[in-house]
Specification:
The chain has 62 residues and is an all-alpha fold. It is built from four helices and no strands.
Length: 62
């Protein structure tokens, strides 16, 4: 679910992604991207997806 929500990169999924990050006890952007890349081919990911994931994570960690 985390991978699909990050791939969609919709602002309405922001809170869901943060909840999943907390639930999965993720602490780094690399951990998020590793999960995303397990389900979404790397060539389909753009800087938009990385920025969205980073933004969600920073919203938790400050």
């Amino acid at each position: 679910m985390l991978a699909l929500k990050v791939y969609a990169a919709r602002m309405e999924d922001y809170a869901d992604v943060q909840a999943l990050i907390r639930h999965l006890e993720i602490h780094t952007l690399t951990e998020i991207l590793d999960i995303v890349e397990r389900y979404i081919p790397k060539q389909l990911l753009t800087s938009k997806h990385q920025y969205f994931a980073e933004s969600c994570l920073e919203g938790i960690t400050g």
